[in-house]
Amino acid sequence: MGSPLTFPRFVRELNSYVSQQDSLLVAISGGMDSVALLHLASQFLRSDHDIYAVHVNHGLRDASNPEEQFAKELCKSLDIPLSIHRADTPQQKGESMEMWARRIRQSAFVSAQEKFNCDWILTAHHANDNVETILMHLDNGCGIEGLRGIPKQNGNILRPLLNFSREDISEYVRENGLNYVEDSSNKDTSIRRNHIRYNVVKPWKEQTHNIIQRFSALSFKASYAVQRMNEVINLLAEKVKSNNHRFIIEDNVMNCLIGNQKVRLVKQLMGETERAWRRHGWTSIENWMAHAETGSIFQINGKWSILRDRNQWVLKQETMGHDGYRLSLNSVDGFKENHDHSKEIIDGRTLEGKDIQLRPWHAGDQFNPLGMNGTKKVSDFLIDKKVDRFTKENQLVVTADGEIIWVCGQRISEKAKVTEKTTEFVELSLERELG
């Protein structure tokens, strides 16, 4: 019968995104899915698209180097330039293995894209991956956003195989006589995704043969519903007045919406439409808005709070200033390596429900420096750091309910560090005020 995955269908999947002569960077691991993707991309005429590839060697398994060699030989046979990236930065304190590997991949993709000056990065996620992702989102207690699964486009990353199943790809590989390497870790069911793949999806498929297609249809419907909802929310957001880091939402706007949609409007105004909120955070604000009395304030995160006024809602962005400096608190998706001393990413739970202050350090101040046991006087810490007198006299600290969590530009507190249990990440950013 033949695989539904063909070059013409692959081209159609790309056509609505990729322009003529855009250059494409294909992420290749050496596994079946990425080999099929590279083989499909290699069939473009060079006059249509320049094709490049990137391979990431995390160095975690004995097979890592043979997989790298396989990728080199494959790209050479297809006459496709390949960029090899080996993990050369260590896992950071509080960073899980999954977070570290993702950071390495993202860094490699960006580096290779800049090296080859590519317009798009293609990855080989497919329909089965989408099913697994949706089920993991459901297990996390997601809303309708989670039912969208993996987006086909995320910035300049495209997933052109997302409408094809693993079986479709396997058949394409067989028909074209393609070789690939097997990653033994994909069989490890102690890994959550593999557990869902082998212990949930596989037996489900044996009873319902079109389950992958049904989830793909669900993903499409959820994506369309969220898109339409966001379009309505965007129109309402345009009617919201704003000034001085505040949004004033009149009751006649809020009363048009149900609870879930009210939260969506708040997210839109905060600039976090595409950022997933965990179920607890989502339901907490929704429940508060349903019962809030005049004068009641809800602290959404370290950066935003909302006030229930008489006939309106006031969404306020928190900023703290001192002697020409301002502290911003920004929710971020995860931990990333940072060499800018004016920014630090901490565990957001450190700030929950606490009074956050930016102030000068005081004689007698103590804190628990990252990587140390026990407390240390700030004065002794600055001396040990060989901070000059002028800088020392102007040193600022950030406190949460009076406890120092950051000696600005120097070090965070051990109590604020990101760990494997961290679910909410907040970036502290010290900025010089203009004017």
Could you walk me through the main structural features you see in this protein, from its secondary elements to its overall organization?
The structure is a single chain. This protein folds into 3 domains: 7-220, Rossmann fold, CATH 3.40.50.620; 239-317, Uridine Diphospho-n-acetylenolpyruvylglucosamine Reductase, domain 3; 320-432, Phenylalanyl-trna Synthetase, Chain B, domain 3 (Phenylalanyl-tRNA Synthetase, Chain B, domain 3), CATH 3.50.40. It has 13 helices and 21 strands. It is an alpha+beta fold and 435 residues long.
Summarize the structure in short.
This protein has 435 residues and is α+β, with helices and mostly antiparallel strands.
List keywords for this structure.
Rossmann fold, 435 residues, Phenylalanyl-tRNA Synthetase, Chain B, domain 3, Uridine Diphospho-n-acetylenolpyruvylglucosamine Reductase, domain 3, alpha+beta, 13 helices, 37% helix, 5-stranded antiparallel sheet
How does the SSE layout of this entry go?
Blueprint: H1 7-15, E1 24-27, H2 32-41, E2 51-57, H3 64-77, E3 82-86, H4 97-116, E4 120-122, H5 127-139, E5 153-154, E6 157-158, H6 166-175, H7 192-207, H8 211-237, E7 241-243, E8 246-250, H9 251-254, H10 259-270, H11 279-291, E9 297-299, E10 304-308, E11 312-317, E12 320-322, E13 325-332, E14 343-347, E15 356-360, E16 366-367, E17 376-377, H12 378-384, H13 389-393, E18 396-400, E19 403-407, E20 411-412, E21 425-432
Parallel strand pairs: 1-2, 1-4, 2-3, 4-6
Antiparallel strand pairs: 5-6, 7-8, 8-11, 9-10, 10-11, 12-13, 13-21, 14-21, 15-18, 16-17, 18-19, 19-20
